[in-house]
Design brief:
The complex is a heterodimer of chains A (336) and B (144). Chain A is mainly α. Chain A has twelve helices and no strands. Chain A has one domain. The radius of gyration of chain A is 20 Å and the shape is globular. Classes of the chains: A mainly alpha (336), B alpha/beta (144). The structure holds iron/sulfur cluster.
Amino acid sequence: MLTIEMILMTVAAAVVLSVLGIAFGLLLLGIDRRVSARMQARIGPPLSQPYIDLKKLLSKENIIPENAVASIFNAAPIIALASSLIVLLYLPIGSMMPVLGGYGDLILVMYLLAVPALAMVAGGFASGSPYATIGAQREMVSMIAYELPLASIVIAVAWLLYSSGITDPFALSSVVANPVWTMVGPLGMVGLFVLLLTFAWVSPAELSKIPFDTPEAETELAGGILVEYSGKNLGLFTVAQGVKTLVMGGLAVAIFFPWNISPLLGLTSYAAMAVDAIFFFLKVIILMILSVTVIRTGLARFRITHVVTLFWVYLGLAGLFGLSLVILDSVLMGGF
Amino acid sequence: MSLSPSFKRSLWVFHFNAGSCNGCDIEIVATITPRYDPERFGVRLVGSPKHADVLLVTGPVTKKMAPRLRRVYEQMPSPKVVICIGTCGQSGGVFYDSYNLDGPVDDVIPVDVYVPGCAPRPEAIIYGVVTALTKLERLAGGEE
Ligand code: SF4
């Protein structure tokens, strides 16, 4: 039953989580820049650099180009931020169950993940600049490309839960409650590991980071989709980027590393929640450094044709290979 | 013009070549290498004038480039600073008196800081950016 208190609680939790998500997302961007600088033997910007950048961007003039469709141009950054925050509300943070957990599942999260990218595409087309148009087209192409490997991961996880007889195999709360690694034999372990590596390559594409930043290519597209954005709108896109980084890390944690630390320490109730949340953020930081920062510092940008081949042929095959290993494993184990 | 204190900790730079010989441009690229690492002060090279706070102009401004320079300057969101890199942009330098010039730079757009040299060393360019910061601070202090 929905009572007034429950609704109020949900709203309050959502607001708190959004604020936390924005703050932590920006911190993630700062860590990313710092680690990347250290890898290049530089000192690098302070961790608070994204906050400083954001404050500066908010204080600057907000230019709307003459030939832009102003309504879409202005709505795009807000939609991008809002949709990334909504995905965050569907993710379990440590031992805290997702705020909106009862209203959606893994499939919904997958679709919601596409919304910020779609908002950016709409903003790019609406800004009326040829550079932004090319950038928006490239973003659409890479979105289509990385959807297949991502889908195979989600299917593998849902299959695992379904074959071991868990009701509601698509709900994120049941994914978290049953760590996937504990449900498979050696063959399935290999399959899951392949899927984990695939996910590590999908995240930078989802976040438009090097080597998949073809839509924003600074050198040949002058910023691509974002070329016409300035001031407040650009700042909102930066925040959305931070939240998206957090969301991708959080999704990887939820699917592959859902363990919590509080049972080990013997904590309960609110203390457990706080410790688990901190542990969750630590896991996200480590995953982000491995799958975003290291890859983006070590590689140069792919051409858009290479992105498509990589995702459809190599990573698509890897995803399907991992998926079939997982299925084979559960058949051998007598799950079916 | 209102300046927030975060402005000077996060300067985004756009580089515009107004007909330079490429000497100054190479020095600008040298300035953003790990050896000098201006990113630790929040300085970043960006690809679009819409994102920029600082415009680095190199070269003596040829007739073809003058209208483009004006347009790029107008596209930058205020508050903004213009730094002119190299002797060329101040006087025409080795191209002085050429029939092909519309410059020097300050005939086309207002310039805040000049960095002389042909080409200036990275240290000089960094010093120029710092001078631009002090000028911004003075402006902010005077107006408030
Ligand atoms: S100042 Fe010298 S190095 Fe710089 S663009 Fe002019 S001629 Fe080239």
